[in-house]
Every structure is written in structure tokens, then in C-alpha cells.
Amino acid sequence: MIQWYPGHMAKAKKEIISNLKLVDVVYEIVDARIPRSSRNPDFDEITKRKKKIMLLNKEDLADERITDLWIKHFKEKGIEAVKVNAITGKGFKELEEKTKEVCKDILEAKVKKGLTPRLRGMILGIPNVGKSTFINTLIGRKKAKTGDKPGVTKSLHWIRTPYLDLLDTPGVLWPKFEDKTTGFMLAITGAIKDEILEMEEVALFLVSILKNRYPDYLINRYKLDKIWEEEIKIIEDIGKKRGCLVSGGEVDFVKASTVLLEDFRKGNLGRISLEEP
Which parts of the sequence belong to the CP-type G domain (predicted)? Predict the structure, then answer.
């Protein structure tokens, strides 16, 4: 069981619940490479009475075919989903149109009452899925704090966007990952701090997926001669090809693991999805 639940997250969860009554629509942002593992299971219960749109962020790093399957999956559950790139703004226009479509009844009701047809939204997500980057790109300036380390945003604050007022919230994890696979998925993408799990273990888990789903990506990136059945041998080969060696010619396993994880996180291996619906 993996635990990582800083005090500010517990506080933020309470504030999210108390502020939900102020908003018309909830945006839940997930990592398109791991839409299942990057969803806080608590959010379903918290937001069940609100209109919701899923944002599949980092779509440029994910396997497009599988991302489309996830959009279909969410739609079958009654939730609209849009794939976005928080850095470039790709998908933002579609999101605006989808928001107006989902909230059509609310907008019409406001017009009938003589109110400005402007919406209020809340954005939710776990750490490091790109919430702050999304907001900064949406409003065209640096307002929300961003960083490579998960858990940068610590409090709730309102931001005015072109078509709605958006309540930004801190990334909130849940207290315990009962399923170790979820912990590994979050560690691979950098959603939890690298110190929580051993880098070597995380890299071995990543290789166990890549060797079956994307073997050619490993071969092409690291000029490997073959894909071994044993994950440890694959990482050793990566280490040899990348010069991750210590005295005596032995492979520096930690360094080789770090090379692999960084390549995955930057998209250097190719467009990869680790989970299918």
C-alpha cells in the first residue's frame, strides 16, 4: 500500500466540497496516457450532482487511437470528454463549444432571468496532470503556479477566462493507493514524487508494459538488438547503449532507469498509452 497525502490536500478536499455549490460545471483533468489511474476515485462521489466534462490532457504524448476509445468510454457513462494539450491550447475551442452544449439549459435560464449568460466552473485533478498549465494557456498569461514537482498549487482561487469564471483547485490525491498498479502508473508519469517509490521498480514496471505493447519503440529509441522476456535485461541493454556504466563495466541500473523514465515523460519514445478502457 502506497501513501502520500500531504496535509494541504485534506484541507483542499473540504474546500472543494464546500465550493461546489457555486459552480455550474466541473472539469476533471486527467493524464491521457493513464486516464484510469490519474482519476481521484473520490471525485465521482463529490461531483455526482454536477455537470461534468473530462479533459484528457497531454494528448500529444498518448496513443491517439486509445485516447479516442477513452472518449467513447466516458460518453457511454454519460460524461463528455475532450482531448487537449494544455501547453499548445489544442482542443480548447472544442472544449468551449462542448461547455456551452453541456450547460445549454443553464445559459438559457440565465438569459430568461435577465442575467449575463456567463458560467462558473471548477477544475479538478490530481497533482501534475497539467491544471495550472491549462489555465495559463486558457487565459493567455501566467496566473496559476506551475512546476515539475507535483503539488505546486496549494489553495483555491478564481480565474476569469474568456467564457467563464473558473475556480482553480490544488491537485488532490486520495490517502491510500490500495492497488499498487495505480501507484506505479502515477510514479511513471511523475504525478507522485520520485522519492516515494524506487526508480528501478518503476522502470521495471514501465518496461513490462512497453515490451508487450510498444516493443518497436524501445528497439528504435535505444537501438536494441532484441526484446528480452526479462525486464531487467531490457533495462541493462538500455544502460549499455546509453553508457550508464560504473567501474568494471557494470550497468548503473538507477541511471538507466532514470534515462528510460525521462524519455517516456518527454515523449521521446513515441505516443504511448499505458491504460485502455
Answer: 14-175
| Predicted TM-score (pTM) above 0.85 | yes
Give the number of other Cβ atoms within 10 Å of residue 268's Cβ. Answer: 12
Q: How far is CA 26 from CA 54, 101, 168, in A?
A: 9, 14, 11
Question: Binding site residues for GTP, as ranges?
Answer: 57-60, 128-133, 171
d(CA 155, CA 11): 9
Burial (CB count within 10 angstroms: exposed 0-12, middle 13-18, buried 19+), residue 110: middle
Residue 234: pLDDT band (50, 70, 90) is very high
pLDDT at 142: 60
> Which residue positions form the known binding site?
57-60, 128-133, 171
Q: Which architecture, in CATH terms, is 198-266?
A: Orthogonal Bundle (1.10)
